Structures are given as C-alpha cells and as structure tokens.
C-alpha cells in the first residue's frame, strides 16, 4: 500500500493520523492496518489511553507463549535484547522466524508500538527497584549533565528503566517545593494553564473561517478543555518550583473551587451522601475495569466538579476502606464497598 493510501485507511481508526510521521505510517501499515480491519469486522474499536487489567494479562500471556515457542529463557532477553549482546543475533533471528510482532499484539486492539512499550514496562525488572537513594539522585543529575535527555543511555548506566529515570529527573531537576502553594506559584500555574489552553484553541479558531475574529478575552471553550489532556510537563517547567503531579492536583483543586463556587461538597452529611451515590453508581455500571468507567458521567454524584476530583475521591475511598485493595480487581473493590461499606455509610447518614 502506498503512503497516501495507508494514511487514508489508517485515519478511520486513528483520527490524529495526519500528525504522524511518514516512517511511522509505513510501520503501522505493516503492523497494524490488517489487525485493525479484522477488529472492525468483529465490532471492536481501536483503543488508546491506559491499558486495562484484561489487556495487561493478555500481554503477559502473549509473551509467555512466545517464550515457550522459541525457547528464549526470559522476557527481559526478549524485550531488552540489547542488554544481552552475546545472544542478540540468535534472539533477533527467532523473533523474525516466529512472527514476534503478530504474536505480541494478538487479541489487543491497539497500535503495536503502544503494546510493545507496555510489554517493556511490565517485564522490565528495573521498574521495580523501589525509591531512589540520595546517591542515585546525585548520579542521575551527573549523568544528565553528561548525556542530556539520552534516557536510554542513562537508564543503562543506572540499571533503571528509561521511563523511571526520565520521570525521576523531571521531579528532581529543580528545587521542588512540597509545602503550601504561595500566591506567586499559584499565579504562575494559572498563567501556564491559560497559555496551554489558548495554544490548543488556536488551530480550532483557525478552522472556523465563518466566525468573526475574536479578541483573546472573548475566547470561549468547552469545559472539558479546562482539565483534559493538558501538557503538564510544559506547565511544570513554567511553574518552576513544583512537580507536574503537584501542578495537576493544584489545578484540579482551583477548578473545583471555582465550579462549585467554594461550596464544601465532600464534608459532613454531603460527603456521606456523595460516597453513597458514588458506590451505588459504580456498582450499577457492572464495569470490570477502572479504565472503562466514564468518570465525567459520575461527576454529578458529588456536584459540578472535574472528573479528576471524582477519581481522587474514589481512590481515597478504596485506600481507606478496602483492606488489601492492591491485590483485588476493580470489580472486587466495588463489590466490597457496596456490600460492606455502603450499609455503614447509610446508617451514619
């Protein structure tokens, strides 16, 4: 399939395909297009975003089966072949002979590249090394000064995953403040968020040729754009003294306060009622995985709030109320809350 045809056919499954490089389009035409068409015949849509528990399990199954077929003795050797130079040639040959790309992506309606990255994250032993010591943090700063953002090289030097070293450097690169937010920091955050939202709106405004040109102050936006898919690492850089997660949490707090006009929606009897409503709605949904929950729809269980606020409240609820929640599936957590905690909350109310 020629490049233009491939891009046109892929657009049915990946709306943002026009922004993808030619080289990536060629790879996707070979690895993904036939799979996507097959999933379409089965009535299955291509997915993006966080991987569900079911998908993670399918990746584990696909990897284990490939290891059994080929005799490669570990997932690390399969997915991080460069760490084993003496075995590299034979492993590469086995991957080609036994159709590694097709086997890894079997049963998962996502682009192959995303499945591959997810598999590497699951099976990289360097992802599970716990907290960074002060000595490691100093090494990370030193290696970054020497090699810049070459996370692959730095990860090998530190025996940590690429993602881990990149995220940790983002956290420690400047003097991060963990105390209360100052007025100056809050102003910087709000300016950075406003700038990011306006930047996103510019291409959309450019497409609306029929509408008269508006001044910056007259700009109106959908509420979802106030908190969905904001470039938090860019916002972190502009704030300068806070890690990106802190920026995101603070912005959610500011937004919630503005949207609710400062009302205390999650305290006292209102808080109990919100917990009761949230548990009932989640139970009625009969959803097997948190990634399949439409948190936007659930926001009215608490009030006019961003979906991140609802997700944060649910997280706090499961951590404080469900014993050994880390070992339970999402549906088991919901069942426990419904059967054990809901009657307690109703009685207290």
From TrEMBL:
GO molecular function list: chromatin binding
Entry-linked SUPFAM superfamilies: Homeodomain-like
Domain named Myb-like: residues: 124-172, 173-255
One Pfam family per UniProt: Myb_DNA-bind_6
Source superkingdom: Eukaryota
Domain HTH myb-type positions: 124-161
One GO CC term on file: nucleolus
Gene Ontology annotations of biological process type: termination of RNA polymerase I transcription
SMART domains per UniProt: SANT
Protein name listed in UniProt: TTF1 factor
Species this protein is from: Baryphthengus martii (Rufous motmot)
Lineage, opening ranks: Eukaryota, Metazoa, Chordata, Craniata, Vertebrata
Encoding gene (name): Ttf1
